[in-house]
Amino acid sequence: MLYSxxxxxxxxxxxxxxxxxxxxKSLNSKQADISARIPSSLREHELAMxxxxxxxxxxxxxxxxxxxxxxxxxxxQKLNIPAISAYKAQxxxxxxxxxxxxxxxxxxxxxxxxxxxxxxxxxxxxVTEVSTTMKALDEALAALCSHRRAEGIKLEAFxxxxxxxIAALLSEVPKYEGERVKKVRERMEEGMANISGIEFDxxxxxxxxxxxxxxxxxxxxxxxxxQHLEYFTETMGAPDGSQGKKLGFxxxxxxxxxxxxxxxxxxxxxxxxxxxxxxxxxxxxxxxLNVM
Length: 292
Description:
The chain is of the alpha+beta class. It is built from 9 helices and 6 strands; from the N terminus they run E-E-E-H-E-E-H-H-E-H-H-H-H-H-H. Helix 1 runs parallel beside helix 4 (123-172) and helix 8 (244-265) runs antiparallel to helix 9 (268-288). The radius of gyration is 38 Å and the shape is rod-shaped. The relative contact order is 0.15.
């Protein structure tokens, strides 16, 4: 089961008087590289948010954006009633001592004094905003993971097709093996026949010829390549969902066997098959970089 490192998730939630939007975007990267844009009111919780993002997404170049908008229904300031009461008591005392009439409009007078209004910093409001934000973050991460899985399904189909093509090309290799060995033998014997005036040991020639042809044997390369292709397919189906690095290593081994086939081919038709295998493998390597 594959997951792509490319994905996008978004969630919107509402706290009292606020609209909170969380967006998470990820691209391919070897490690978890997190860039966060978080409002100052939530800055002290940034580490917890980063930790949750890294734990959920594991790898990728990740952009986290959180915005908080006012809906116009919240009250950002409150009346400082103890201060207002103290001001009112002082004015009443002043009125009694100086024999002055009390003000007709208490509200307009009292609200002119400093500290009669205070910002709403109640812990309940803060807790609500934080909990709502964390919930929205979880929803955005879940949406991104869903997007990653959808992309992973496409990658599975892509890899399966390329692996199948390489296996089909590998199955055509035996058609050219007999002819390849035969041509090598004929060229060597023809070359020796053209050498005049030199006597040579025929049995030693056969030994050298056997040794030379054995160097061009590709049986082991074919077997190992077939095993790597099978292992690649098995790894794609693993349930852990983080096979990107392993698939990268396997594709390197596939490339090594294909290159050895090419160096030992000594046959134009076989070389064409090797070139086609390399083309399919290069497409696999490009997309493996996107697998988590």
